[in-house]
Structures are given as structure tokens and as C-alpha cells.
Design goal:
The chain has 2 helices and 4 strands. It is mainly alpha-helical. It has a domain at 39-120. The strands form 2 sheets. It has a two-stranded antiparallel ribbon with strand order 1-2. A two-stranded antiparallel sheet has the order 3-4.
Amino acid sequence: MGARTRLRGKRGALSDEHGFTLVELMTAVFIVGILLLIATLLYTRSISATRRITCKSNLRIIDGAISVYEARFESTPDDIDTLKTAGLLRKFPVDPHTGNMDYSIVAGRAYSEGGHQDYP
């Protein structure tokens, strides 16, 4: 018979049986589904971490501009627009959580309206 195994079909004739059983196919689909689920969860988590890091970076930039403003003018800025008109910010940073420029200054410290209020 050689390397191939010949099996008898329903009618008794010799035939080559090829293919996968339904259980094998279902197992393969199940494993692929689990892998896709894990990949989706990791992707979502990485996007969230990236937004959080971007927001913290924006807050540090604004706080640096506030420090320079306080050193130059010996007062705290009233709002973010004051930093831009003083030439300390070229453009307003966009909050990655909301997509807007939702930052405010309270007691000489920058805060995000939609994301994080503070950074370590």
C-alpha cells in the first residue's frame, strides 16, 4: 500500500480519506478565538497606558511653562491662554482622553479636565 493508508469507504471501495474532523476544526477555531481575545485585551491596555503617559507628559510641559512664567513675572498665570500669549507654549496640548484642550491651572498647578489630575 505504500506510505498512504487506504481506507474503505461506505461502499467498500478503496479511497483516500483526507481532511479534518469537525472536532479538530472547532478546536482550532476556539484556539484562534482565545488568541484574538488576548491580543485585543493587550492592545486596549496599551492604548490606555499610552493615553495616560501622554496626559502626564502634557501636564509636565504645562507645569514647566508655569514655573518659567512665575520666575519671569513673579505671579501665577490666570489660565492656559496666558502661557501662550507670554510665548511659553507654542500650541496648546490636546488631552488624549477627551481630544480637547481641557487643561486648567489651579493654584499654580496644571490639571486635566478629562484625564489625570496629577502626576507623580
